[in-house]
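Reply to dn_fold:

You asked what the input looked like. This is it:
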Amino acid sequence: MRREKLVNIGIIGCGHWGSNHIRIFNALEGAKVRACCDLSASRLGVLRKLYPDIDFTSDINKVIEDKEIDAVVVATPTATHFNVVKSALNKGKHVLCEKPLSIETEESAALMSLARKKQRVLMVGYVFLFNNGIIELKDYAQKNALGKILYLHFSRTNLGPIRDDVDVVYDLASHDIAIASFLLGGWPRRVSANAGFFLRKNIADTAFVTLYYPRGVLANIHVSWLDPKKVRMLTCVGDRKMAVWDDLEAQEPIRIFDKGVIKEPYYSDYGEFQLLTREGEVVSPLVKLIEPLKNQNLYFLQCLKGNKKPLTDASFAHGVTKVLKAIERSINNKSTIQEIR
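and this is what came back:
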């Protein structure tokens, strides 16, 4: 039987996420981590002991120019994404880049065009779209099991980790923008946002964001690096049922509430009009717990081998960046509503 060709992987950036990519790709059938790059000598020293069969270097060109490497993972600081991804694409590599793809919309548009020109896969790591809980919620939405979705509410908070390269919106809210647009099947038209600069003057550490979607659907996002409790939660309210996803709840990450509001259809005067709450059962569907990063990286390999367009391709990432820029404009203009452009 003909053996399937291994996909040789290069990892650029071996910090927290880069190290996770090494671990996952190193264990996936059909892939092999060939080389890794990082500027930290001490970090490379630790990883060499863990993975003696992988070539480690501080020279990025040794990874990008290695003709045996088919695809690279870019897990460097966000401000470096554009140049690193551009160089990799120009050398004919497929790319899996950590989110967000870029800070500027002009950059994400340029990378989208370059990937198309080079006929390379450019996928961005919006890892929560590969979380089985979010996938289950998407299935409920597609089957209209919740009815018409009225609004989404996201909470993503913790006490740190505090980043220096991007603010809390780019770091955390980018995940929720991706999830909201995945669940709703489209992009918001307008945004409004305000932020707190409690720790440093120029980098927001707390933000409250409202996204205005077509057909009156709202999405509210609260993100913070300055909160006593780690929260990763989404409430999805439909006119038929309601759902809560809690990423930190291992046993029951999703709960479906058969609850709603009943409008009395007949009344003769204003005093007789009533809105009555409806209470029903609470269901916790079985969600198979698989590490989302494993799901994501396996999907990336499938895209390479099947030559298919990724769900979180450069076009999707460009859409998220446009929303992030509109949020930035709203914060800088005293929370005024900004159009997505």
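Residues 132-290+322-339 form a domain with the Dihydrodipicolinate Reductase; domain 2 fold (CATH 3.30.360.10).
Hope that clears it up.
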